[in-house]
Amino acid sequence: MLVNEVIQHFNDYRDEYVAFSVILMGCIDGLDNCFAGEEDNPEMRLRVIRVLFGIYRFYTDSWMDLDEDIAGLLVGNTSPEERQVIAGWVQDALKQKATWSNGERYEILLAALERAN
């Protein structure tokens, strides 16, 4: 919920980049901790993965650099089945990308997911 609100209101405030970037980075750290402790809870893992990918997509589509390795978390801390789900999301993002975007970050993530399987 917090991540969705931050993303939705990102451009509503002056100096939003610094303030909201700090919030997003804290959310990434919290999600990473939550994700790591849920090996036996696939539903929770999928919710956390979905939120992490949402942050990744937001910062990728916005050309932001959060200086966080979300792609590394999505590739290195997931099962082959989870990576297949993520790959589907990446392919959807590539289809929906803006015309001015070259999709390079998505293509790099997709290649990393495929290599990990």
Entry keywords:
117 residues, globular, 73% helix, mainly alpha
Task: Tell me what you see in this structure.
This protein has 117 residues and is mainly alpha-helical. It is 73% helix and 0% strand. The chain contains six helices and no strands. The chain is globular. The relative contact order is 0.12.
Separation, N- and C-terminal Cα atoms = 31 Å
Strand tally, please?
0
Low-confidence stretches: none
- Cα radius of gyration in angstroms: 14 Å
- Run of helices and strands: HHHHHH
Characterize the main sheet.
none
Overall shape: globular
**Separate helix tally:** 6
Query: What portion of residues is helical?
Result: over 70%
% residues in beta strands: under 5%
The average pLDDT value, as a whole number, equals 80
The helix/strand class is mainly alpha
